Amino acid sequence: QLQLVESGGGLVQPGGSLRLSCAASGASGSIFRHYAMGWYRQAPGKQRELVAVLLRGGGTNYAESVKGRFTISSDNAENIVYLQMNSLKSEDTGVYYCNAEPYGGKPRAWGQGTQVTVYS
Q: How far is 64 from 88, CA to CA, in rounded Å?
């Protein structure tokens, strides 16, 4: 069963940067052949929302609110997905979750989440 572990969250001032990592284990070979890998976030009192997704073949999609500031990337050999977050704003505060959405019949997977707090 696929397991996802996020890291890299923390406290940062507006305008700062953070890089989140999501390490996947339990998969046979490259997870990117079998899953679309995404980052979601959930702010207090709000629904979980998609931030960025990395598709098979390298395509990416981003929420409008993070375009030009966030970049999703991967280390295919190590089955790690990154989210580079630049020019952070207070509205980026939330718990960030890594998600694996299968292309086939496997179950989706979620990480436990990592807290990002942007404060002034």
A: 14
Secondary structure E strands in the chain: 3-7, 10-12, 18-25, 35-42, 49-54, 60-62, 70-75, 80-85, 94-102, 109-110, 114-118
Q: What's the token pair of residue 39?
A: 């980052």
* β-strand partners of 95: 42, 115
CB neighbourhood size of 58 (10 A):
10
Q: Residue-wise pLDDT tens for the chain (120 aa)?
A: 899 999 999 999 999 999 999 999 988 888 998 999 999 999 999 999 999 999 998 999 999 999 999 999 999 999 999 999 999 999 999 999 999 999 988 889 999 999 999 998
